[in-house]
What does this fold into?
Amino acid sequence: MTYHLVEYLQISEFPENQYCIVLRWIEKNRILPVWIDAADAFELLQHEAGVPTRRPRMVNVLIDLAAATAGGFKEVHIDSYFAGDYIASLVTNNGDELECRPSDAMGVAYLLNLPIMASEDVLSHASVFISEADLETWLGLYLTTDPVESHLEESASGDAAADADFSKLMESMGVSEADLLGSDDNPPKDSKE
It folds into this structure.
């Protein structure tokens, strides 16, 4: 299974006590929303805020247990997605994988600053493109544009991510831009001839 690095951006709150972990597929600049319940969101937000606890949380116990038995954790995987539910795993330094809920995996990843990897299948099925303007408006996220992308030509449709996806689709079918537009040596023939 192929995995890609995703970036944790934030936990967003929506009406009716709905919470979402917002991850970004860096390579494609797409958003992977992972919906969690209010109690898990509250706990993760407390981790982020550095709120001390009187007693260890389950995530702390899990981290201590892994350190004692498996040499600690190496990374987090988001392995599968079906009908709105994700399955994650914590990968130990000795190569074992422990299946867990994504909210628990995110807590460990946050506390240990672990990389978060999502399977290509999950990203293909559950990630979405959201424009930078919509990210700012709806989620309060201000992402800086990749310096490499800022030098690219403007997109034909106004949606660079959609254009890139379309180009890949066409290439996978063996069609190039030159095939569609014709080359200078062989301009497209006029249909009236």
Confidence is low (pLDDT under 50) at residues 147-154.
